[in-house]
Design a protein that fits this description.
With 289 residues, the chain is mainly alpha-helical. It is 71% helix and 1% strand. It contains 14 helices and 2 strands.
Length: 289
């Protein structure tokens, strides 16, 4: 004789409990990921001798903006360079890479996803293979190719405009657009250029925002290429200047963390500006994938 099963909890009762458990797990994970950021913020407001005190570094004591003022004052002369000039170089390079990349990579992806021409699949396969090639493996060949262009803003930006991963992101999104939209545009007399800029681009704001944020984040933190190509302080980007500032002896960790906050701040501003479209792009990719 079969043993009778215990009655299950009603679905209406299980749903709130499961939702609570999900939020609890996500809250714990979010707290763990935010701990380094919290330590960065608190450490940037503390004297150097209190930064490396273990868990007591999280205590909000002796907070001030002296470290920020010291960093800005220390980088405000011809001998040390100017902080805002380093910031401007990084912003200029990131702007060129992001805007140029959005234009070049979106058009390349549109040609490979919506236009029909011989060899299209082979070219797209090559793009996928390029995603597997790390930049470190081609950094030295690029260094010798562009050695006569060292210490310029141009060389810091141009090699990174075309990006295989960005092309793949655009390609995946464009393939999800119904072909009937372009067919209607062609019936109205629109060619490929007009179709792309007047119809496809306005419909693709989420993927443009996602690519812009990821490209800016990658380019803003670029370090290896500037180390190889930049020796002139007048064109030094901010991450490279932070490594120089950190190498000064003795290290002042409060000032170093303050420099880190100033380095992260533009990324947070860009993300806050594109956040709505970025979330839409991630959500639509998850649904369509």
């Amino acid at each position: 004789m079969a043993t009778p099963r215990a009655p299950r909890a009603p679905r209406a009762t299980r749903a709130p409990l499961r939702r609570f458990a999900d939020y609890a797990v996500l809250g714990v994970l979010a707290f763990i990921f935010l701990l380094p950021v919290l330590y960065l913020l608190l450490g940037s407001l503390k004297p150097s001798d209190e930064v490396l005190n273990g868990l007591t570094g999280f205590l909000p004591t002796h907070l001030s903006f002296d470290n920020y003022a010291t960093v800005l004052d220390a980088l405000n002369s011809d001998s040390t360079g100017y902080f805002w000039r380093f910031m401007g170089i990084s912003l200029l390079v990131a702007f060129v890479v992001v805007t140029g990349g959005l234009f070049v990579n979106s058009m390349a992806a549109y040609g490979m996803s919506r236009l029909k021409w011989r060899g299209r699949e082979a070219v797209f396969t090559l793009v996928l293979l390029l995603m597997l090639v790390p930049f470190e493996s081609v950094a030295v060949p690029l260094f010798y190719m562009f050695n006569d262009q060292r210490n310029t803003v141009f060389i810091q930006a141009v090699p990174f405009i075309a990006n295989a991963f960005s092309i793949y992101q655009f390609h995946t999104f464009f393939r999800s657009i119904p072909p009937s939209i372009e067919e209607a545009a062609r019936l109205d007399g629109a060619g490929p250029w007009r179709t792309f800029f007047a119809i496809i681009v306005p419909m693709s704001k989420p993927v443009f925002a996602s690519v812009a944020i990821l490209t800016f984040l990658t380019q803003w933190g670029s370090f290896l290429w500037p180390v190889l190509m930049v020796s002139d302080p007048s064109v030094r980007p901010l991450p490279l200047e932070m490594s120089v500032f950190q190498g000064q002896q003795p290290p002042d960790w409060g000032q170093i963390l303050a420099f880190g906050v100033l380095l992260v701040l533009p990324v947070l501003i860009v993300f806050a500006f594109f956040q709505r479209w970025f979330v839409q792009g991630v959500a639509s990719s998850a649904v369509k994938g």
